[in-house]
Structures are given as C-alpha cells and as structure tokens.
Amino acid sequence: TKRYSITVLPGDGIGPETMSVAKDILKLIGSLEGIEFGFQEMPMGGSALDLTGVPLPDETLSAAKQSDAVLLGAIGGYKWDNNPKHLKPETGLLQLRESLKVFANLRPATILPQLVDSSTLKKEVAEGVDLMVVRELTGGIYFGKPRGIGTNENGEEIGFNTEVYASYEIDRIARVGFETARKRKKKLCSVDKANVLEASMFWRNRVTAIASEYPDVELSHMYVDNAAMQLVRNPKQFDTILTNNIFGDILSDEASMITGSIGMLPSASLGASGPGLFEPIHGSAPDIAGQDKANPLATILSVAMLLKYGLGEENAAKRIENAVLDTLNKGFRTGDIYSAGNKLVGCKEMGEEVLKSV
Amino acid sequence: TKRYSITVLPGDGIGPETMSVAKDILKLIGSLEGIEFGFQEMPMGGSALDLTGVPLPDETLSAAKQSDAVLLGAIGGYKWDNNPKHLKPETGLLQLRESLKVFANLRPATILPQLVDSSTLKKEVAEGVDLMVVRELTGGIYFGKPRGIGTNENGEEIGFNTEVYASYEIDRIARVGFETARKRKKKLCSVDKANVLEASMFWRNRVTAIASEYPDVELSHMYVDNAAMQLVRNPKQFDTILTNNIFGDILSDEASMITGSIGMLPSASLGASGPGLFEPIHGSAPDIAGQDKANPLATILSVAMLLKYGLGEENAAKRIENAVLDTLNKGFRTGDIYSAGNKLVGCKEMGEEVLKSV
Ligand SMILES: CC(C)[C@H](C(=O)O)[C@@H](O)C(=O)O
Ligand SMILES: CC(C)[C@H](C(=O)O)[C@@H](O)C(=O)O
User: Fold this and answer.
1) DSSP B279-337
2) What is each CA distance from A212 to A67, A203, B193, in whole angstroms?
3) Which of A11, A199, B9, B302 could form an S-S bond across to B72 if both were Cys, CB 3.0 to 4.6 Å?
4) Which of B21, B31, B23 shows the shortest CA–CA distance to B7?
C-alpha cells in the first residue's frame, strides 16, 4: 500500500470543524483506494500564537516540509487583528507559503448547476461560469523590499512597500498559467496594470515571451481595473486568468463571490518540488465558529485538490468530487448555500452525507 | 453675469462625440442661469500625441491650470497601446492629475430605478445601490519612486514600483472621505490590505487618527479582497468607500459595473485649491468611436459634478441631473442601457433629448 504523510493545520475559527470532517473523508478514501495516510496535526495561526507565541512554530514548519502535502483549515480572527505584524496569524501563513516556496496558487471559481441560485448574479450571467485564477503567491508587493513605516527626506512619516518581480518569477508562474490553460479551454488572460506600472510592463513582456512556448494556447492581456469589471459583466468570457500576488488576491475573491458559493471553493498552492499547500478560499469565519454551521465542502474539495495536484492520485480525487456532487444532488445544504426545497444541515451532518456518498 | 472659463479636453475615441453634446448642455444651462462659460478646447491623450508628439502638451496644461475647471472626454486607444510609457495617452492623464494636484477622486456608483435591469446583479441585490468611492489620486504606487525596469543584486532583470504614502497625503484624503460621508449616510468604510502591507497599516493608523475629528461619522475598515467580494455580495452595505490609488482604480470600476450603467457614471477629481478635473468613468471605447453610438450621459453628469463640486453652482447642477432623469423617464436609451420597450437613440439624439428636458 502507498503511504503519504499529511501535515494537518486546522488553524482558527471554523478551521478545526471543517478539518475534522475532511480528515474522515480522506481516511475513507484511503481505505477504499489502498492508500495509507499518516496525519500530523500541528498548530498554526492564531491558535499557535495563543499556544506558542508565534503564528508559525518551527515544529509546524519542519513537519510541513517533511510531509507529502499540507492541508490547512483557516486562520485569523478578531482577537489577533490588532497584533503587530510579526504576531499576526496572516504573517504565519505568508511565512509558510514562502518557506514551502509554493509560488503558484490555483483558485478555481466554478458555478455548479445545483447552486446557480446562490450567486447574486442573474442566472443567465452566472450559469456555466468555470474559470481558474493562477495567482503568483511568493513574490510581488507581499514580499518585496524595502518595506516598512519610516520617515522620508522631508521628515514626513511614510508607509511603504515594494512591488517587484524578477524575470524567473514571472517566467515560472507564466508557465504554470499556460500549462493550466492547456488542460482547460486553452485561453489564458494575463491581468496587469501595464498602462501605469513598470512592474506590470515587465510582467507583460515576460508573459508574452513565454507564450512562444505554448503556441496552442491563446494569450490575451487585460488591465486589472477592466478585469474587475468584466468579472461582473460577463464572467463566462474567462477560462484561465494569470496574475500577480496582490491582483490575484483581489480578483480571485471577487471571482469566488460571483459563484455565490465561497464555502465551496478550494485552492492549491504548488512549488517546483516539495509538498503543496491546500486550503479552502474562505476565511476562519469567527462569527459562526464552534456552532456546527460551517460549510465543510471547500475543505473537502481542497482534499480533492491535494490528491490530484499534490499526490497525483486522480482517481481518489475524482471520487471525492463525485461524492460532493451526489450530496448536493440529494439536496443537502449548509446555511450559506441553502435555498428553499433543500435540506438544511450542519457541518458534521454534511460531512456524514459526503461520507455516505463516497 | 458670472463668468467661468472651462478647459475642454475631448481626447480620443468617443470623447469628442460625448463632449460636443455635453458642451451644448452647459451652454444652455449657462444662458438659463445667467452664467457665461468660456470654452478653451485643447488636445490631450492620443490625439495630442498624433498632433504634437506628447500626450499632454504644455499649452494644454497651462490652459487647464488657468481655467476654473477642466472637462475631459476620454483618452486612449489600441493605436497607442504599445507606445513606450512616456508616450502613452495614460501618461498624459497621470501628468494632468499630478500637475493639477487633484488628489481626491470622487466616483459615485448609483443605480437609477429606471436602469436597474441593466445590472448583471439580481434586481433585489442591485436595487437601491448608492455608494461613493473616494479614491486617492496623486500618490501611492502610481507615482511612488523608485520605479522602473532594471537589474537586481543577483543580476536578474526586474520590474519594480513603490507603494508609498506620507501622513499628509493620507490625512487630506481621509478628511475628504469623512466630509463626503458626512453629506451622505455618515458611514465611511476605509479599504486597505493592513494584514499584509505596511503602507496599509500606516494608512489605517492615520485614517483612525483623523476619525476623531468626525465623531458623527461611523468608520469601519475592510481588507481589499473582502471589499471586492462584498461589492458583489451586497453592494448596498456601502455608503462611502475611502481607499488608495490602485485599490480605488480596481474597486471603483467594479462598483460601476455593478450598476450596469458605466456609460452613466461621472467622476470629479479635486485638489486643495485650483481647478478640478471632471470626466466620465468610462474609457474611450475605440470600437464604437465615430458611430454616434456612445452614451453621452456620463459626460453630461460630469458637467453636473463640475458645476456642483468645481464651481459651487448647485442649482445648475441639479437642473442637469433632473434633465437626465426626465430623459430616462421618457424612455430614451443608448445601446448600452437599452432594454425592450424603450426608445433606442444615438449619442446626438440623446443629447438633444436632454437639452429639451433642461
Ligand atoms: C490572509 C491573507 C494574508 C491572504 C492573502 O492575502 O494572501 C488571504 O487573503 C488569501 O487570499 O489567501
Ligand atoms: C487610464 C488609467 C491611467 C486610469 C487609472 O488607472 O487611473 C483609469 O483606469 C482611471 O481609473 O481613471
């Protein structure tokens, strides 16, 4: 039997609840597919801060590095919102991404026919949306230096950050973008602000250069402000979107809300080698934490991405995706995706139903 | 009689068409209100590039500076898209904003009951949206230095920009935000990325400090990724949004598309003193230029903002706004806002109908 070690980071808020459900499903899939999963559960985010004083303890990081894949629940909460930067849960997440060198963040935004009513967009606009955001995750303004709060030459206090991309960083994420598009509808839209920013002009130049390696993929460019509009106007025009860290943060959240089911959407963060990081797109939702109200499907689908992109276990991944679809077809819904005529369930019961459908 | 000198910059694409209509309306309003407008029409953007070799000729800038207000049509087009940075139409616009020191960009996004069907959002979500984005316009990553394309210490080619805000820049735009909210529903939401960026932490600190001057305004903070989602999920939650240059670029375009009538939306850019700059939010739409298809209402409503915010002529502004509403009530629609049962008209005819309704 194959063995994989999975670092499990339940994190904060609803993280532990959805993670507990997701682990059960991974175990069942393992037993059915003849795969043994070893789980190492470690503290991360706000709960790690409370426990150890830092958001990403060394033990957590080294466990993550030694494992085959990392599964994260969610991090953050009001409690730590006013912490100084190095003691924010978010800083732990950024350190984890950087240390694992997972530069490619894949964020699907798909509208399932069963859930088209959850979108705030009109049915005819929402129906059939199926796009993938490929976001650069370990560069740009998130990590660029110099950065800080200081004083300028006039003695005025300033806050500053640096948006910076080296050619190799753009080239490798562009290749992920083209490869991803190649497996989809072969349309890649690179989003930047090249009419204003040099970092974007350089981005556009590099992406255009890499395009010659992928003659079968159709490349287009769009300004970020226009992309933010077009996602609302006609999201179906997009297949694969390639963009930098900060624009990807904004556009992938916008795209996920367009599906109306942010509680459904997983993500994968991959490097050139080493374990990938898999997490739902939604946050830790502190207001509903501990009430068995969370939608576990995004974490469950993150497990499917882990199997597919992290371990190459496509069969096992497909089984999970199908079980989720079956469960939705049977009418089970958590509060966030509930509509009249369906069965309202909590986090645990939703998990049990998916287990039954596997 | 009062006299005002207006610098008119028709610009590119549909700019000249919508501007010609808007000027007629301003003239009529002037004669009715006993105001004399002197117009100085100057080249700007791509048409200035073709004519003079630069996107913002010195003569244009000095005319603008000496006038009481500047009215801009639209700039840009495919023709100049691959020009080097200093020869892009957009660079002329950035120079104009910087030279006029118009640091406060007011961008309303309102859904008129007559046009609620034009939104891609469901009626119950779109109905009643009435928000104002207050965007910082002369700072941040648009203007920050260092910037460029160069080489890093490892000899790798890089593209880089600097996001930087000094305290005085944040304080003055924050005050505009609070003042604007005070005249509206007294709710100000400041949007940043303070969980990651020092420039945003500093922004949040300064905005919070300025809040003590406005105890009657309710201040909240939101991360930009969440704001991009919330605009889709429930845009009605927002009254006034305060944000930096790049986030404002993205969010105001998203917000305007949510109204479904980007051809309707004006903007005002104001400084501490000197002439303001007034322009529609939409671009130059080169694909429909010269075909009498453009919607002139955004430019006409920019004239209303010019009268109200630029010249303090509130009566005259109100007359224009009412004339636009009347024209819509009579069922006149350009293609972009057309729906069955209404009368499809071109740019000129729409202008004539508004003239009749003044
Ligand atoms: C929590 C935060 C640091 C993070 C980011 O900005 O990347 C989150 O918004 C995300 O998109 O995963
Ligand atoms: C044309 C461009 C430079 C400009 C900007 O980015 O500010 C435009 O998008 C806008 O929002 O007015």
Assistant:
1) EESS---GGGTTTT---THHHHHHHHHIIIIIT--HHHHHHHHHHHHHHHHTTEE-GGG
2) 36, 15, 35
3) B9
4) B23
Residue B290, Ramachandran bin (φ over 0: left; ψ between -120 and 50: alpha; else beta): left
Return the sign of the alpha-carbon dihedral for residues B208, B209, B214, B216.
positive
Q: Does A209 touch chain B (CB under 8 A)?
A: no
Of all residues in chain B, what percent carry a pLDDT higher than 90? 98
Counting DSSP H helices and E strands in chain A, the numbers are 12, 14
Mean pLDDT of B241-265: 95
Sheet with A148-151, strands from edge to edge, namely: A148-151, A157-166, B157-166, B148-151
The closest alpha carbon to B15, from B291, B344, B299, belongs to B299
Helix A15-33 vs helix A347-357: crossing angle, to nearest 10: 10
Whole-number mean pLDDT of chain A?
97
Tens-digit pLDDT profile for residues A151-193: 999 999 999 999 999 999 999 999 999 999 999 999 999 999 9
The Cα B180–Cα B177 span in angstroms is 5
A281 CA closest ligand 1 atom index: 12
Contact B267, B106 (CB under 8 A): yes
Helix (H, G, I), strand (E, B), or coil: what is residue B21? helix
A254–B166: do the CB atoms touch at under 8 Å?
Answer: no
Cis omega (within 30 of 0) for bond into A146? yes
Angle, helix B15-33 to helix B297-305, in steps of 10 degrees: 40
Structure tokens, B287: 């694909």
- In one-letter notation, the amino acid at residue B70 is V
Whole-model pTM: value is: 0.97
CB A104 within 8 A of CB A269: yes
pLDDT beyond 90 at B81: no
B153 Cβ under 8 Å from any chain A Cβ:
no
Helical pair B245-258 and B224-233, crossing angle rounded to 10 deg: 10
Residue B209 touches chain A, beta carbons under 8 Å: no
Q: How far is the CA of B249 from the centre of ligand 2 (A)?
A: 6
Count CB neighbours of B315 within 10 A: 12
How far is C-alpha A110 from the chain's CA centre? 13
Tokens of A202: 């350089």
Phi, psi at residue A120, to the nearest 5°? -80, -5
Q: What is the CA radius of gyration of chain B?
A: 20
Strand partners, B220: B189
Reduced to 3 states (helix: H, G, I; strand: E, B; else coil), residue B195 is coil
CA–CA distance, A137 with A120 (Å, rounded to integer)? 28
Q: How far apart are CA A228 and CA A226, in angstroms?
A: 5
The secondary element (H helix, E strand) that includes residue A353 is helix A347-357
- Helix, strand or coil for residue B117? helix
- Which of A191, A196, A198, A223 most suits a substitution to test ligand 2, by most atoms within 8 Å of the C-beta? A196
Nearest to B47 by CA among B11, B7, B15, B93: B11
